Amino acid sequence: MSAKRGPDVTTRMLGAGILAWLLPGAGHYALGQRGLAAVFFAAITFAYGTGLAIGGVRDSVNPKTNHWLFLAEIGVGSYTLAGFAGSAYVMRTAPDDVNLMSFYPGSDVAQIYLAVGGLLNLLAILDALARAQTGGLPVFHHELVRGTAAERGAP
Amino acid sequence: MTAPPILLAWIPFVQPIPLPSAARLWMFLPLAACVALVYRATRAYTARELPLATVRTFINIVVGMSLIAILAYAVDEGVRRFWSG
Fold this sequence. Notes:
The structure holds 2 protein chains of 2 kinds.
Chain A: H1 9-22, H2 26-30, H3 34-55, H4 57-60, H5 67-73, H6 77-93, H7 106-134, H8 141-151
Helix pairs in contact in A: 1-7, 3-7, 5-7
Chain B: H1 5-9, H2 23-26, H3 28-43, H4 50-82
Helix pairs in contact in B: 3-4
């Protein structure tokens, strides 16, 4: 008799990780945790979207302008790739348009929001990986093993 | 009634929203709420346990950051008063 089995742990982790990187909350959604997926999507999209709206794509998603910021933003794959495409388009079509540039204090706040959005999604990716590994629990497998061992009184 | 031309011409995410200087400090609050929400979500078993835990973490972050700000302000004032003549 063959029981219906889902994908193995490695495949599940890989899928959840890539989906979570592409779109905040998508990894959790694929794992069946719809409520948490909505929370991750809303919180990270809000932070990233607010930063992008205040800063504008021209300088906010541009590795030539600020490569450290871009490194933090790349935590949210699809948003950053779309923003980068927008930034490249603006740089090509209207490179000197002052209306498309952000200045203090807007640029300052935008950078913080974008960086935090990207880094928060890294946290969400790690959480999706952990849940894919443990079948939905918010801890990694080794933490589960250690916890079980501690409950049994093992050293 | 027609919208002002500036609103009609505005393209979101391409044209930056001008942020008044006074709003800069207040922008900390929504960001702290996002951080609290995502952090608590990584520790939760279901979304149902989130609201109370998020509020608690949000308050912790705001109080902690306010204390750091007060301390930094006091150090700055102290340096200005006693070291710079």
